[in-house]
Amino acid sequence: MRSIEQSPARERVRPDARVDDGPGAGLVGARIRQFRTERGLTLRGLASRSGLSIGFLSQVERGISSIGLTALGSVAGALDRSVAEFFDTGRNDTEEPTPPPTTHFTLTRAENTGTQYVSGQQTYRMLSERGPGLVLEPMLVHIAPGGRRENAYGHAGEEFAYVISGELLYEVDGTEHRLHPGDSVHLRSSVPHRMYNDTDMVTTVVSVVTPRLF
Question: Which among 61, 67, 129, 212 has the fewest CB atoms less than 10 Å away?
Fold first, then answer.
């Protein structure tokens, strides 16, 4: 369980940024190592704060394994960084933050491409615009078959997943549940969990998580 709350989103990541092979090989892993070192943390210390294993974090830092967005959110919170800081966004650090609006409304059309991120076998499409002070992170997730199973882990917040097509193995606290189209799960994210597509077809899921990742 991480001991530092996730910092608010401070920037927007460019469309089609990739978690596992973005600008420069191993960029995210290199950023994790950089930010960890700057805070004077060992891998053991980061593992303790983020709830992820030492071995997994070591593989991510070395570019051997990719990391999902929710897991990256746990790392970001542990390092007191925003998720967007792990990407090469070309952001100008002198920009003043935008004050929170009193209201927020997003209308997302089906034809809109949206901002997408790819991590290993999973492609995430953001389903709403960024906005200060928001809690929910709605996403459309496409999970390709196979790939490495991430370690089960817990983190602050809640998760909801609704299967649109395909099948999904969703492990919660060591118990696997097979989800079919129309099935859904809702859990407190502090319970160790992970998901995996063990079929030969792409699985599509609507996922809503808290806290906001960006």
Answer: 129
